[in-house]
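The data are quoted verbatim here:
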Amino acid sequence: MSVELRGIGMTSQRTRDRLVVRLREAGIQDERVLEVMRDTPRHIFVDEALASRAYEDTSLPIGFSQTISQPYIVAHMTEVLLKDFTPSRVLEVGTGSGYQTAVLAQLVPEVYTVERIAGLQEQARQRLARQLRLSNIRYKHSDGNWGWKQYAPYDGILVTAAPEEVPEELFNQLAEGGRLVIPSGPNGQQQLRVYTRDGESMKESVLGTVSFVPLLTGES
């Protein structure tokens, strides 16, 4: 691993180890998720000026009026998605920096990721392919509200921005027994929700209050 990926000082492996200790103390139990969080260099997903803060449990700006989610949220949503099974095909709505994408790609066979901001997704693609050498990811520049019908159905769908109402198209692209993890609701009243397809119906669970950037429509 290069020095850039290993990190030094506040971006070192020791700092990542401390992050994992905090995640475990906060309730993350899935050892697969914790191991990937330990191994993934979050500092390469933020601006160099913010690298020393990369392993704090906080969201950080990544440009384009977007943020990288706090590590606990990434770990929590991933753990919920993987609970009791390993989905073979996962759709991520909102590539963002690519950090959540990188975590998923180390845990499931196929990741399909959609992002409405072309420049942001291209940055993520470069990091994931060139620096982390992850080759099981497909990318689409598109409005995330429409999912990615071409490769549906998905065993898992994970959404990293919050619509006020869950897009019907995401329900339509979920496989039988598949799981959708999504924050939704008005700004200031967002809840993290999990839906599981059971035939023609959806079982819903509410996991708690969260704060995400809104899931916008259109492309840019």
